[in-house]
Structure formats: C-alpha cells, structure tokens
Amino acid sequence: MSLANKYGKWAIVTGASSGIGKEFALYLAKEKINLILISRRSKDELANQLRNNYGVEVIALDLDLSEPDNLRLIQKEIEEKDIGILINNAGFGKAGNFMNHDIRVYSEMIILNCLAPVYLTNLALEKMLKKRKGAIIFLGSLVAYQPTPYMSVYSATKSFDLTLGLSLYGEYKKKGIDILVVNPGPTKTEFHKVAGSDGGYFQREAPDVVKTAIRSLGKKPTVLDGIINKILVLAGRFIPVKLSLAITEKIARSIYVKN
Ligand SMILES: NC(=O)c1ccc[n+]([C@@H]2O[C@H](COP(=O)([O-])OP(=O)(O)OC[C@H]3O[C@@H](n4cnc5c(N)ncnc54)[C@H](OP(=O)(O)O)[C@@H]3O)[C@@H](O)[C@H]2O)c1
After folding, report:
1. Would residue 158 show up in a list of annotated catalytic residues for this protein?
2. Contact 178, 6 (CB under 8 A)
3. Is residue 189 within 6 Å of ligand 1 at its C-beta?
4. Which of 84, 207, 66 lies closest to 136, judged by CA?
C-alpha cells in the first residue's frame, strides 16, 4: 500500500530547507504526498521543483518555530488538510562548554527541539485519531541515548524527543497511529556548522537517515541509523554511568571543543 493510502494525502515536514528534512520532503513528494514545509528560510525553489517534478501540492511556510506565536499560525494553515504524516525534524544544537552560550540560545533550542514537536503533534494527532490512521516521526539522536558533555542542552532536548515519541507510541499504537523515533548519529548536513563543530569522522548521509526511518515506520517504536551508532549505544548499556561519561567526555571534547 502506498504511504498516501496508508496514512493520508498531506504531510508536514519541519526543517525542510536543508539536510534530513529536505530529504524527507523529496522522498514524500516522490510518494505523491502533498507537503506543508516549515522552516525560516525561503523554500520557494524547492517547492517549485517538487511541484514540477512530482505533481504534488506544496505549501511553504517560512516561519521561526522557536517563536511560540508562530506555532499558533500553523493551526490555521492545516485546518482543511488531511494530514497523514508529521515529521518533527527541525532542530539545532550548540557545541562547547555549557557556559559558553547565552541562555536565549538555549531557550530557542528548547522551544524548537521540544515544544514545537509537542505542539505540532497535538495538532496532527487530533486529525489522525478521527480517521484512526497517521504517522508521526520524531528526530532523536545518538546523544538522546548517551548524555553528552559539551552538547549538554542539545543532548537533553533529544532525550526529551526520544521519551516523548516512545511514550506516545505506547499510548497510540492501538489507535492506528504509527509513531517512530529515528536516531541519527553524525550525519553530513548543516547541523555541524550551526552547532560550531566538525561532526567527527564517521558521518552518514541525510538520505540514509530517511531510508532507515521509512523502513522502520510501523514496525518498531525507535531505530538508530547506521551500524556503528547501534554498536555505540549497545556498548554504553554495559558500562557504569561514571565510566561511560568519562569516555564520552574525551570523545565529545575532541569533536565539540575548539582549542
Ligand atoms: N546532522 C546530524 O549529525 C544529526 C544527528 C542527530 C540528530 N539530528 C537531528 O536531525 C534534525 C535535522 O537536522 P539536520 O541534520 O538536517 O540539520 P540542518 O541541515 O541544519 O537542518 C535543520 C533544519 O531545521 C530548520 N530550523 C532551524 N532552526 C529553525 C527555527 N528556529 N525555526 C524553523 N526551522 C528551523 C532549518 O531551517 P532554517 O535554517 O531555514 O530555519 C533546517 O531546515 C534535527 O532535529 C537534528 O537535531 C541531526
């Protein structure tokens, strides 16, 4: 069955102007799903490309999701739409010592990474529950599983997304809603430039993350992208917290702290 038949004709993708979100938009357009794309930068070029190449309808909203007032604007935009899929993807992190960043940056990060997914999930679920079908994907991270020095607030926001997604999976699976948390490790996108880090050596590509997510949707509540990331999380389960933090601190310092 096609994704459009299984879930509905429209998808919302946040953070669609680059990286993993843009790849989700491309994938869903190829599946003939109409799109509501949300992020701050203009997405006119991408929207036209998707309309022309795949014949889908695209609404591009250039909105800052770290502004709670903007979250309310989205409700009106989706009122009449058969929302079948929500991809809670927009997010950013900041690398370095906790005290290096302004508290306003952390506030924006928490609103974007945590409040926006709660708000949008609430809007989308209302529609999905009426027809007893729908899919919601959250972007967790490797650092959602492993508390990460020099990425502390970001790591905490991703643990929030992981816990939120898994809890909702438990609550809504029997009501016909497929919920998945996909957890990438380092992936080649603009994320690392925004975070102020180099992202380390072993980076996967954004389309890998999308493929992993789509393969797992409806089959399991959570998935890690890539075998190395799976091994890292598994290994972490057998080590005492103190030791695991000491090892993570060394690795994270080499990736996230500039000399
Ligand atoms: N890349 C990695 O290594 C990695 C690893 C684990 C998890 N993730 C997660 O994957 C998700 C996607 O990140 P990515 O790797 O694709 O990074 P990216 O290329 O930097 O994309 C981030 C997206 O979020 C949007 N965004 C940022 N701030 C926003 C705001 N205030 N309001 C609305 N949209 C905003 C950006 O668009 P605008 O700038 O146009 O607003 C962009 O489209 C994030 O949740 C991230 O935490 C990434």
Report:
1. yes
2. no
3. yes
4. 84
What tokens does 104 get?
Answer: 């306003």
In whole angstroms, give the CA distance from residue 205 to residue 128. 31
Structure tokens at 3: 């994704």
CATH code of residue 62 = 3.40.50.720
Q: What is the residue range of 77's domain?
A: 3-256
Reported as a single tens digit per residue, the pLDDT across 215-252 is: 999 999 999 999 999 999 999 899 999 999 999 999 99
Ligand 1 within 6 A of CB of 226: no
Task: Calculate helix-pair angle for 116-131, 68-78, nearest 10 degrees.
Answer: 20
Q: What is the pTM (predicted TM-score) of this model? A: 0.97
- Tell whether ligand 1 has an atom less than 6 A from the beta carbon of residue 139: yes
Nearest ligand 1 atom to the CA of 142 is 6
Number of domains in the chain: 1
- Measured distance CA(149)–CA(160) in Å, rounded: 16
